[in-house]
C-alpha cells in the first residue's frame, strides 16, 4: 500500500513538474523570440496592460533575403526619461546585439517608421524595477528592393531609363553630347508591388492592387533615386485614399530625400488633385500607410529625371482640407 501511494505521489509530482516547465517555456516565448515571417506584430508582455518590472525581451525579425524589414509602432507608452536609462526599446540594424544601432526610444512619442538595410532587425525591450506603463505594439512588413544599375560598355556611354519592372537603354557614341533631360522609355510597365527602390531616369508605379482597393494595415515605401546632379519630378495621374480631415487614417507621405526622416514635403489623402512635386536633390521617398478599416483604389504615379532646380518653392493647393502638411522644401506646383 505504501508503495502504491509512493508511486502515485511520484506520478503527480512528475506531471506537475512537466506542466510548470511548459508554463515557464510559454512565458519566455511570450516575451521576445525569433520571428521569421514576411509580416507580423510584436508587443510588450501584458499589452495593453502595464508591462512587468525587471523585464528584458529581445526579438529578431527575419524576412526573405533581398527584402527589407519595415517596422512601425501602432502604440508606444514607456516610462519617460531624458536619455532613456530606465525603460526603453533598443533597435539595431541587423540580427544581433552588436549590429549598428538605429535608435533608443522611451516616453510616449511613437518612433518614426524604421526600415532595415538588410533582411533583419533586432529589437530589445528593457524595464527596470520602478515605474511601468502600457508598453508598445509594433507591426512589421517586408518590401522587395531591386536596384537596376546602368551598364557602361568600353568606349561608350549608356543612359538607362528604368523602373523596377522595365529598362530602356540608349547607347551613345561617346562624342555627341547627351541631352540635358533624358527621355524615359515610351512603353513601361508600372511597378505595382508594395514599395521598392526605383532608379534610372523615369518610370511608373502604383499602390498595391491598383485600381482595386489597396490592402488594410499596410505600410509601403518607395524610394526614387536618380542621377546625382538631377532632381526627381513626381506626378500623380490618379489619387484616391481614404478621406479624413487631418489624414489620420490612410495617407500618402512624401519626403524630400531617400530617408524616412528626410524633410517632409506633404501628407495627402482623399481624392484631391496633387500637382507636380519636384525634389531639391536627387531622391524622393513616398510612403503609403493604411489602417485596419476603409481602403480606396489607391494611386497611379509617374516620375522622371529633370535638370537640377536652383530655387525651389512650395505653393499651396486650392483646398487644404485633405493636405495636412505642405511646408517642406520640395516644389509643389499645380
UniProtKB/TrEMBL annotation:
InterPro entries: CUB_dom, Sperma_CUB_dom_sf
Matching Pfam families: CUB
Biased composition (Low complexity): 158-170
Region forming the signal peptide: 1-25
Keyword annotations of the record: Disulfide bond, Repeat, Signal
Residues in CUB domain copies: 31-143, 194-306
Disordered: annotated segments: 158-198, 307-334
PANTHER family in the record: CUB DOMAIN-CONTAINING PROTEIN, OVOCHYMASE-RELATED
Protein name, UniProt field: Bone morphogenetic protein 1
Species annotation: Acropora cervicornis (Staghorn coral)
Lineage of source species: Eukaryota, Metazoa, Cnidaria, Anthozoa, Hexacorallia
Amino acid at each position: 500500500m505504501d508503495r502504491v501511494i509512493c508511486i502515485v505521489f511520484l506520478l503527480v509530482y512528475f506531471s506537475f513538474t512537466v506542466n510548470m516547465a511548459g508554463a515557464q517555456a510559454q512565458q519566455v516565448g511570450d516575451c521576445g523570440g525569433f520571428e521569421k515571417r514576411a509580416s507580423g506584430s510584436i508587443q510588450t508582455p501584458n499589452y495593453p496592460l502595464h508591462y512587468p518590472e525587471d523585464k528584458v525581451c529581445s526579438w529578431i525579425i527575419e524576412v526573405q533575403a533581398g527584402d527589407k524589414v519595415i517596422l512601425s509602432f501602432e502604440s508606444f507608452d514607456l516610462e519617460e526619461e531624458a536619455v532613456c536609462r530606465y525603460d526603453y526599446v533598443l533597435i539595431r540594424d541587423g540580427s544581433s546585439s552588436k549590429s549598428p544601432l538605429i535608435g533608443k526610444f522611451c516616453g510616449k512619442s511613437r518612433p518614426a517608421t524604421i526600415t532595415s538595410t538588410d533582411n533583419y532587425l533586432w529589437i530589445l525591450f528593457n524595464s527596470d524595477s520602478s515605474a511601468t506603463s502600457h508598453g508598445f505594439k509594433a507591426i512589421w512588413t517586408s518590401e522587395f528592393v531591386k536596384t537596376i544599375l546602368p551598364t557602361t560598355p568600353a568606349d561608350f556611354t549608356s543612359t538607362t531609363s528604368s523602373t523596377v519592372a522595365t529598362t530602356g537603354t540608349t547607347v551613345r557614341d561617346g562624342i555627341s553630347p547627351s541631352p540635358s533631360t533624358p527621355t524615359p522609355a515610351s512603353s513601361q510597365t508600372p511597378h505595382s508591388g508594395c514599395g521598392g527602390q526605383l532608379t534610372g531616369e523615369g518610370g511608373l508605379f502604383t499602390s498595391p492592387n491598383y485600381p482595386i482597393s489597396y490592402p488594410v494595415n499596410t505600410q509601403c515605401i518607395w524610394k526614387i533615386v536618380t542621377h546625382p546632379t538631377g532632381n526627381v519630378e513626381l506626378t500623380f495621374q490618379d489619387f484616391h485614399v481614404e478621406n479624413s480631415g487631418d489624414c489620420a487614417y490612410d495617407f500618402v507621405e512624401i519626403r524630400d530625400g531617400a530617408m524616412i526622416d528626410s524633410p517632409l514635403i506633404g501628407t495627402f489623402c482623399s481624392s484631391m488633385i496633387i500637382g507636380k512635386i519636384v525634389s531639391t536633390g536627387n531622391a524622393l521617398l513616398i510612403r503609403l500607410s493604411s489602417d485596419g478599416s476603409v481602403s480606396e483604389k489607391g494611386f497611379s504615379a509617374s516620375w522622371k529625371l529633370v535638370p537640377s532646380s536652383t530655387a525651389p518653392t512650395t505653393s499651396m493647393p486650392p483646398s487644404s482640407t485633405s493636405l495636412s502638411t505642405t511646408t517642406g522644401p520640395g516644389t509643389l506646383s499645380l
